[in-house]
Predict the 3D structure of the following.
Amino acid sequence: MTKHILIIGLGLIGGSLAKALQRNKDIHVAGYDASALTARKAFKMGIIHSSPPSLEQAAAEADVIVFATPVGATIKLMEQSKYWNLKDDVILTDTGSTKLQIMEASKKLNHLFIGGHPMAGSHKSGVEAAKEVLFENAFYILTPDEKTDEKSLQFLKDLLSVTKAKIKVLAAEEHDHMTAVVSHFPHLIAASLVHQLDQEDKFPFTRQLAAGGFRDTTRIASANPEMWRDITTQNNAMIVHQLDNWMQQMEQLKEMLQTNDPEPIQQFFNHAKVVRDELPIAGHGAMFSVFDLYIDIPDVPGIISELTGYLAEEQISIVNIRILETREDVFGILVISFQTNEDRARAQKCISTRTVYDTYIS
Ligand SMILES: NC(=O)C1=CN([C@@H]2O[C@H](COP(=O)(O)OP(=O)(O)OC[C@H]3O[C@@H](n4cnc5c(N)ncnc54)[C@H](O)[C@@H]3O)[C@@H](O)[C@H]2O)C=CC1
Ligand SMILES: O=C(O)C(=O)Cc1ccc(O)cc1
């Protein structure tokens, strides 16, 4: 029997989930967005099967309702949902980047709520950025609570299995602690680095030099500010704790730099390199999946369109493209990112057979 899924919020995450769920032919995906234009666009793009005009009516017909809105809006919608005329056995879930406050809000609901967080995404937002394959190989965290029955949890896991994400059950507190470390606090640091660049007024040319490493380290600072405002205010205590640790670390770093002894400075970088190099690679346990292919290219006009042209001919989709370094006299490094490991392997074969340029995977 066809199951009715309602996705509220048709941006990057809601749109991507809607697309992935459509792989299951026994599912009807209805989509609602506060922006009527977004909902219309999602329907025209085929991301959702239907775009109901009334949220309450769509909610009444749903077997599963997914809140894919910024986490502040999600809590407000959850409160409103108490007044909706829902099916008794409906499952409510969400995609938010925080879980503690959302699970706290769920205690006041009359229906089952299982927290969710697909840990893949990007600095882009909006329905236009939605991708069916966004969650493949990424972790998809679920945070059931003591009211969750095994059958409903299994139903939700089965429903989400079409995303090809790795579903993992965690307590909300564990989730918020870990995401503060690997996602929320790093986001604040990325934004702070950009602020620091912005305050640099001695040499305005500095911005032009902000290539390679600076751009890599700060990419996420281009993400949706409203979404990150909500994440930061909800997971505030865990983030402040990370900031305390960081400030302590910076004090030690400052002392080390003032002493300026080369040995501990090298050890500092060495330890970071060892830990960083040992992180699980994307697709094998990493939190966010992007598959980078490095290509040594000469700095000549037309080279990028030549390479992307070969990939297009072989129908290999690219998710990102950037140049790490270009100087007039040396080869530059082109980094092309792919959504899946298979795409990257096909791209490497394509470039190696059709050009003389060296390719490698970091
Ligand atoms: N962007 C990312 O990389 C990731 C985001 N998330 C989480 O997923 C959720 C959605 O994020 P994105 O899709 O990136 O955001 P987005 O900005 O791309 O989309 C959010 C959508 O929700 C709609 N919306 C806002 N308030 C609404 C309301 N009250 N009722 C109905 N629609 C409303 C907006 O019009 C927009 O279309 C957030 O909670 C975020 O924390 C989770 C994983 C990754
Ligand atoms: O772009 C990136 O690397 C991200 O970190 C995207 C992201 C943003 C928020 C999340 O809760 C999960 C993933």
